[in-house]
Amino acid sequence: MALAVAAGERVRGTTSPNPPVGCVILDADGELVGEGATRPPGGAHAEVVALAQAGERARGGTAVVTLEPCAHHGRTPPCTRALLDAGLARVVHAVSDPNPQAAGGGDVLRAAGVHVESGLLAEEVERGTLRAWLHYARTGRPHVTWKYAATLDGRVAAADGTSRWISSEESRAEVHELRTKIDAIMVGTGTVRTDDPSLTARATRSGQDVTRQPLRVVVGMGDLPRGARVLDDEAETMHLRTHDPDVVLGALAARGVVDVLLEGGPTLAGAFAGARRIDRVLAYLAPKFLGDGPSALRDAGVSTVTGAVALVVEQVSMCGPDVRVSAVMPSGAAR
Amino acid sequence: MALAVAAGERVRGTTSPNPPVGCVILDADGELVGEGATRPPGGAHAEVVALAQAGERARGGTAVVTLEPCAHHGRTPPCTRALLDAGLARVVHAVSDPNPQAAGGGDVLRAAGVHVESGLLAEEVERGTLRAWLHYARTGRPHVTWKYAATLDGRVAAADGTSRWISSEESRAEVHELRTKIDAIMVGTGTVRTDDPSLTARATRSGQDVTRQPLRVVVGMGDLPRGARVLDDEAETMHLRTHDPDVVLGALAARGVVDVLLEGGPTLAGAFAGARRIDRVLAYLAPKFLGDGPSALRDAGVSTVTGAVALVVEQVSMCGPDVRVSAVMPSGAAR
Predict the structure, then answer these.
(1) What is B2-131's CATH topology?
(2) Residue of A176, A135, A275, A228 lying closest to A239 (CA atoms)
């Protein structure tokens, strides 16, 4: 299953609106004979890729897959069919498919005499490779990660507006790596006017070229300045003239966007936090203090301490000299 | 040495202006025959306490002590004399004494034919039990730990001024435990007016009674409100009518205060941060967002990002649901 998870992780950011699933095939003797991951939309699912590699050696073997195999005919035939045709004896999957259209694959396989197990490394997959897609499948809304870099006193810029750089080189490199794994990057019009970011993923730490750029999304009523970097040809850009997070998420879902990185600024983040439409927060906190300047979040509609937007810390660790905090909305908190 | 460190830690907060030293004595066969820690000022030093317990069994044995034994005659005779009188063959200490008056104990012992080693667990002692005292011995200033509890967006209260409770019960209990280990708690007059805190250490998690209260220090020009809790009989209170951190630290050093806990508010913390008189920051960050309300730090005299007060993270961990960050001023940063 760890191999299947890794295979899925490698294609994260290239499969939406389909899930980045990973699959390995073991033959009847337990030897690895195939490995695959979801191809870009319209292409083969992970099971089919892995089965093609395994060929006849799959017969009597085991498929290990991060998500319950689909039982429906979408742009590709159901994976359950492919698994049955290949003559597999056993299917082990991490998480069940919450999508009512595609679900029930386990039952279909069982009815056909295949031994089906579920739950292996389920938590790792739920929190990792399939987190965004599972959220999207369950709620119909793209998964929103709010990423910000601030000082320990919560400032995202100094009194004079300077913000380069609050966080370390290591943290900034990690964010570029993250951008290669998501579908869309979102900022407010204020950030475009103030910082003129290009919002593209640049060379990764591993030195690999970035072959695919996420969609750039700018939210707000104001016009974008002529010549703004987000209007260049490096990636596609969508300007949504609204302040309503649900309107934004609806428009993105309609485009097949599953995984969104909200990169600010404080006003847009405040609107999303206030609407409880931030599913995860990824904070890079530099061990610095400014004592003045804008805070990471503004206008979240909270006036008293008991009304705070409350999350649960999932992981805390170091990224170079900075503290990295990953916190998630407790399940059931979103309306 | 780990036993000696633990013995010193147990008396932390009761020995100032003397260091909370721990000592164990092993006999010639390496068996533990004595253990001791610094008694309150005027009382015996750790070595003398441990030697008294060991008695004649110390002869030919080893003293393991967190700090180089003193060679000077203060309120008590030099520890080097006591060690020589007891006939010890070997002395192992963690850190050397930076105090010019008391230093040289190692040389005195060596000249008398004792085998002396230093450096064992030195870093642990430097960062732990003896951190504050070593800072005080080297700079003449009390060591300042700024403790604050804030949301991840750096707020210490909501827009309506409510702040109970930003941090978790676990974090608050830990702070009470911390208060039993320091010499003085410091706040600004603004905090006294706004929160009316009692600034006492209450029952600890271990259920032990608190036998000693730290000095309460209020800094600022304004008068304290009649009936303020800091004026009750629970502990002594000192009101310093100044805004200058160095005047405050001078007054505290003159009273033998070695280890100070700065508990806010944002203006006082800003004055200390701006003067680079915060030696350590202990932040309890609750995974909550307010988007409004006062930030943890104000007016630190920083206007641009490159002028930020920069620290180094020493430890990051969880305290209940909160993130606990301990960061220290890089050596040489204080003027």
Answers:
(1) Cytidine Deaminase; domain 2 (3.40.140)
(2) A228
Interval B170-216: pLDDT, tens: 999 999 999 999 999 999 999 999 999 999 987 666 666 677 899 99
ipTM of the complex: 0.93
Q: pLDDT tens-digit profile of B146-179?
A: 999 999 999 999 999 999 999 999 999 999 999 9
Instruction: Kindly determine whether residue A162 and residue B297, on different chains, have CB atoms separated by under 8 Å.
Output: no
Residues B80, B115 contacting (CB under 8 angstroms):
no
DSSP classification of residue B108: H
- Rounded-to-integer distance, Cα B283 and Cα B174, Å: 12
Query: What are B108-117's pLDDT values in tens digits?
Result: 999 999 999 9
Residue A236 annotated to the active site:
no
CB pairs A-B closer than 8 Å: 188
Query: H or E element: which one contains B172?
Result: helix B169-179
Question: Which chain B residues are within 8 Å of A320, Cβ to Cβ?
Answer: none
Please state which CATH number belongs to domain B141-328: 3.40.430.10
Our CA-based measurement puts residue B215 at a distance from the nearest CA of chain A, in whole angstroms, of 27
Q: Which residues of B touch A151 (CB under 8 A)?
A: 154, 308
Q: Point out the catalytic residue in the list A9, A31, A35, A47.
A: A47
pTM of the model: 0.94
The domain segmentation of chain B, as residue ranges, is 2-131, 141-328
- Decide if B2-131 and B141-328 have a common fold: no
- Mark yes or no for CB contact B317/A316 under 8 Å: yes
Average pLDDT, consecutive stretches of 10 residues, N- to C-terminus, chain A (335 residues): 96 95 97 97 95 97 96 88 96 92 88 96 96 96 98 96 95 93 96 93 67 93 94 95 97 97 94 97 98 96 96 97 96 57
Residue B234 burial (10 A CB sphere; 0-12, 13-18, 19+)? middle
Subunit contact B288:A274, Cβ cutoff 8 A: no
